[in-house]
Amino acid sequence: MPPRAGRHAVWPDRIRPEVINAIQLAGVDHPWAHQATAAEHALDGESVVIATGTASGKSLAYLAPVLTSLLDGSEAPNGRGTTALYLSPTKALAADQRRAVKALAAPLGNGVRPAVYDGDTPVEEREWVRQYANYVLTNPDMLHRGILPAHPRWSSFLRALRYVVIDECHTYRGVFGSHVAQVLRRLRRVCARYGSEPVFLLASATAAEPARAAGRLTGLPVREVSDDASPRGETVFALWEPPLTEFHGEKGAPVRRTATAETADILTDLTLQGVRSVAFVRSRRGAELVSVIAQERLAEVDHSLVKRVAAYRGGYLAEERRALERALHSGELLGLAATTALELGIDVSGLDAVVIAGYPGTRASLWQQAGRAGRAGRGALAILVARDDPLDTFLVHHPEALFQQPVESTVLDPDNPYVLAPHLCAAAAELPLTEADLELFGPAVPELLPQLVEAGLLRRRTTGWYWTRRERAADLADIRGEGGRPVQIVEAGTGRLLGTVDEPASHTAVHDGAVHLHQGRSYLVKRLDLADSVALVEEASPPYSTTARDTTAISVLETDTEIPWGGGRLCFGSVEVTNQVVSFLRRRLITGEVLGESKLDLPPRTLRTRAVWWTVTEDQLDAARVNPEQLGGALHAAEHASIGMLPLFATCDRRDIGGVSVPLHPDTLLPTVFVYDGHPGGAGFAERAFHTAREWLTATREAIASCECEAGCPSCIQSPKCGNGNEPLHKRAAVRLLGELLGSAPPPPSAGTPDPAVPTDLPVPRSAEAGAEVTGRAQEPSARPVGPRGT
């Protein structure tokens, strides 16, 4: 990717000279054109989203007007006439931004007083932050649970609130984004109570329609600045497919070397050459494993380099995270294996290379991660190492899908009743809801409020709706969509707390017999106690990793929209999913060879959500030459591959979605394949699949047909988490079936004609029965026992 020259501008006249001087002392003589434009909008009181590339100076674009405003406010009699709030999706990013702001504002004296307010902030410091800090850095979780419910204690801060900065706003998508959208509406409502109307300044990686997405997130009109005027060095981008090994997997399928092992070897080579590198790995366990393998390889060559490689992931204790961040900033660490906790904006200067272990799910995340290399305009290397997976295989053989396509739109649905209902309760607890508030929270409110009253969650009075329970209303909403108490991971012999894992993820990550990795050490889970939310582990060094498998059944609750595809149907609506983790595989390290499978006895989880599904008729099966013996395998193979390909069309992770295939479903009375959102009430992914069904299923058929294997492999139709042991699967029948289905699809719309697969009058999401308990999150692909087969 060729280099790009930068375009300078001048700061607006209203930026204070002291602020411009501080910026120049930091080494920035003139702003880039997009920085000056964004600052102008902010000073005009217009909410603005800055959607430019990594390392393009987005932080400076919003800090210039923010620091100017804070200096103006410092001249008020109370010394805090103006305040600003900064929101980041991770604690690490907030801590990093505080360091950057403190350094930048040092020449400004006490006029700017930044402080972090999150779960790691000591209790004794919190009162000082509330009373004296004028730039508070926090996260949506703390705003939701700590600040808004206690807004009277924050009254002087909120009364003076001029700017709200929302960093990395492209991460607020799906269910999490929908929750954050409602938290921001609650913030705007409480601010109005104190007489303030803050301007929102949003920073985003390059995204499709950033102003529209930012407006959906904040509920306000937002101006867009997306013309990136910063310079960029040349970037070499390699697509890397690991080689086939001599081993064979299930049903004799060929097995490629794992992306984890390949990434660890590349990180080792880069470290030996003194190249500062970060390897991004999708899972916490994967990050630990890459770090361990790289350290072992380095020990064989130069033992002094072992301590210069480490892992960084969520779930570490606060002091562990901070120590790693300091080592990274100081250059003490040369190589790092990280989850997306590092992807989100920590300023890592001087990186030369980025290795990405597996496609991260969206093009936006891919460019965000790749952009970490070559900061400050230098040349860089980025390597995408493909996993043995249908989507990754498709991408390394079709690079145009990465390099010639725009980044995705951000999908979120604040009107999702499962999201909206608890935030209405939280809002009523903060200040009684009135008729004037209803428009702020969206069109689904009038339908939902009577149900909340009937369920005893709110009480209707002449002046509005009131929260009357003793419990904290904010506790009703788990904004990360994780559900339940975090499970503590405790070393059995010492009682030492190693970390935590979300309750839904505990079924797959810390079940009995699971291998858990923590800071380069491996542990075996002796017992998972769901009642006490504790997983007891013992240190061990097994020569294998573990992968959980689950089963799923599904029922149709309501069909919202359906379109004829020949005799079959493409449908979108509401479903109920029952999921259960049933076993786990032991896989040899490095090669991924399956060593054995062990059964598990864990409780099922139920989930009401949204799904897309398609049916085929007997005539279509005959036309595709799919006989009854092949039918189950054809549907199952198409389901696995379609789930693997959906992240190319919707801004989801493979773990955000699930699926089920059934040769004869009791609700449709036809062979049916379902793909559903793995979050209560839906997250917009299945809806996106419905809208793009023709392109999505065409790419799915292409991915299967172009794979070089004979009868199916992990690169096309096999899933490593298939609860039915990848049985049955029929590759060729799946290709014929998808071909016949696509041949029956409605023709693409001509210009100006609405696509029949994109309804122009989508209904407001149907609210669930008040008080209904819905839990669960989709796991990665897994087929199901005889009957429904799901992923």
UniProtKB/TrEMBL annotation:
Helicase C-terminal domain residues: 262-418
Gene3D superfamilies reported for this sequence: P-loop containing nucleotide triphosphate hydrolases
Entry's Gene Ontology molecular function annotations: helicase activity
Region: Disordered, residue numbers: 741-791
Top-level taxon in the UniProt lineage: Bacteria
Coiled-coil stretches: none
Listed SMART domains: DEXDc, HELICc
Protein name, entry field: Helicase
